[in-house]
Amino acid sequence: MQAIKPRDVQFLPIANATWVLRSRTWERLKFEIEYALQKGTTANSYLIQGDKIALFDPPGESFTEIFLSELQKRIAPQSLDYLILGHVNPNRSLTLSRLLALAPQLTIICSNPAALSLRQLFPEKLLNLEIVKGEDRLDLGQGHCLEFIPTSLPRWPDQLCTYDPKTQILFTDKLLGPTFAAIRS
Predict the structure, then answer these.
(1) Would the pTM of this model clear 0.90, i.e. be above it?
(2) Considering only the top CATH level, what class is 8-184?
(3) Which residues contact 139 (CB under 8 A, 6 or more apart)?
(4) What is the rounded CA–CA span in Å between residue 118 and residue 128?
(5) Please, what is the end-to-end C-alpha distance for the chain in angstroms?
(6) How many helices (H) and strands (E) does the chain have?
(7) What string of H, E and C letters represents the secondary structure of 74-139?
(8) Region 153-172: what's the mean pLDDT?
(9) What integer pLDDT is reported at residue 183 of this predicted model?
(10) Is the terminal CB of the chain with fewer CB neighbours within 10 Å at N or C?
(11) Residues paired with 20 in a beta bridge
(12) Is 54 left (phi over 0), alpha (psi -120 to 50) or beta?
């Protein structure tokens, strides 16, 4: 029987002042059962650093400790300005809670359905929420002017995609996951 590699987090540049934090596991995650994948997965988060700094979509609780440890090796959480959530999953609540303890100054950017979910997940916390719509923009400086695209789906009514014209990257969180899973299997 072959030993399974431990979970880890890779920090890799993907574009101008843009990095991916790939939280990797070599096992099948619970959500993968429906896609029949058995070769491991990543939960991808992203970091864009302009004059302001945005972090996207931290991973679920099974990665909380190693994700926050790797993030803190690269950047002081107190220097983060925005947390952009493409989807709110209760599984991410531990990571979000610990991140907010390290970075209470964060402004959370999300859709209205996501804001409702966050208020249910954290009823005791006063969250600094900024609810965005399709015409809204967020200028991080240095050419990174993010555009928001609500992509509500029956399964993920809070889904929000973010486009960075400078790097031409579309951050989709859950939106394309089933499509890529179907292609890979």
Answers:
(1) no
(2) alpha beta
(3) 50, 52, 145, 146
(4) 11
(5) 23
(6) 4, 11
(7) HCCHHHCCEEECCCCCHHHHHHHHHHHHHCCCCEEEECHHHHHHHHHHCCCCCCCEEECCCCCEEE
(8) 85
(9) 34
(10) N
(11) 12, 46
(12) beta
Pairing of strands 169-171, 137-139: unpaired
Question: CA 60 to CA 94: how far, in whole Å?
Answer: 7
Position of tokens 């996951």?
Answer: 177
Asked if residues 4 and 27 have their Cβ atoms less than 8 Å apart, the reply is: yes
What pLDDT, in 10s, does the model give residues 83-122?
Answer: 999 989 888 999 999 999 999 999 999 999 999 999 999 9
Q: Give the CA count within 13 Å in the CB-facing half-sphere of 63.
A: 26
In what helix (H) or strand (E) does residue 25 lie, and over which residues does it extend?
Answer: strand 18-25
Residue 63 is classified by DSSP as: G
What CA dihedral angle connects 158, 55, 45 and 164, to 10 degrees? 80
Please, what's the b/e burial string for 23-32 (b: 16 or more CB within 10 A of its CB; e: otherwise)? bbbeeebebb
pLDDT digits (tens, 9 = 90+) for 23-52: 888 775 555 444 555 566 778 899 999 999
Q: b or e along 73-91 (b: 16 or more beta carbons within 10 Å of the residue's beta carbon)?
A: eebebeebbbbbbbbbbeb
Amino acid at 52: K
